Amino acid sequence: MLDNAPRGTICIEDIEIGMVRSLRKQVTDRDIEMFAEISTDRNPVHLDDDYAHDTIFGGRIAHGMLTAGLISAVIGEQLPGHGTVYLGQSLKFLAPVRPDDMVLAEVEVVEIDHSKRRVKMETRCIVNGKKVLVGEATVLAPSRKFD
Ligand SMILES: C[C@@H](O)CC(=O)SCCNC(=O)CCNC(=O)[C@H](O)C(C)(C)COP(=O)(O)OP(=O)(O)OC[C@H]1O[C@@H](n2cnc3c(N)ncnc32)[C@H](O)[C@@H]1OP(=O)(O)O
C-alpha cells in the first residue's frame, strides 16, 4: 500500500533546509519474492521459513536493499523528485523489516550546495516508531534553469 503523496519535482531553487518528504508502504511476501527475483539475491533468510526460524531474526525478513529502495522512491518521486540523479547513499540497517511490516521512509534536507546543485539528506525508515534504517543521501537536483 502506497500513500497518495504528492508527486513531481522540487527544483534546487525551491529546496530548503529542513524540508521533509515521506511515503508509507507495507512490505509484503510478494515484494520480497519479486525483489529476490529481480536482484537474484535468494538468501534463504528472506525466502525460507524453516531456515529463517533458526537465525537471530527468528523468522523471514526483507532484503535490506528492498527497504532502502523506498528511500530512493521518496527521492525520485518527491524530493527533489523527477529528474534527480542519485550521487551517493550511506546505509545502516539497525533492525529487521518483517513481511507485512508497514515502513515509513523519510528524507530530510540537511545541506544544499546551490553552485553544484547538490543536496544532502538524512534518510531513515521507521517501523512502529522504531528506526530500522538510517543513512545519508547525496543527490544532484533538477534546476529550472535546465528545463
Ligand atoms: C545480503 C542480504 O541478503 C541480507 C539482508 O539484506 S539482511 C536484511 C538487512 N539487515 C537487517 O535487517 C539487519 C538489521 N539489524 C539488526 O537487526 C541489528 O543491528 C543486529 C541484530 C544485526 C545487531 O543488533 P544487536 O546485536 O542488538 O546490536 P546492538 O544494538 O547491541 O549494537 C551493538 C553494536 O553494533 C552497532 N550496530 C548495530 N547495528 C549496526 C548497524 N546496522 N550498523 C552499524 N553498527 C551497528 C551498535 O551501534 C553497537 O555499537 P557499539 O559501538 O558497541 O555501541
From TrEMBL:
Q: Quote one Gene Ontology molecular function term.
A: (3R)-hydroxyacyl-[acyl-carrier-protein] dehydratase activity
UniProt cross-references to CDD domains, sorted A to Z: R_hydratase (cd03449)
Domain of life here? Answer: Bacteria
Residue stretches spanning the membrane: none
EC number(s) recorded for this UniProt protein: 4.2.1.55
Q: Which residues form the signal peptide?
A: none
Q: Which keywords fit this entry according to its UniProt record? A: Lyase
The keyword Lyase is annotated on this UniProt entry = yes
The Gene Ontology biological process terms listed for this entry are: fatty acid biosynthetic process
Q: Where is the MaoC-like domain?
A: 23-127
Spell out the InterPro entries in the cross-references.
HotDog_dom_sf, MaoC-like_dom, UPF0336/Enoyl-CoA_hydratase
Q: What name has this protein been given in UniProt?
A: 3-hydroxybutyryl-CoA dehydratase
Source organism per UniProt: Yoonia ponticola
At the highest ranks, the source species' classification is: Bacteria, Pseudomonadati, Pseudomonadota, Alphaproteobacteria, Rhodobacterales
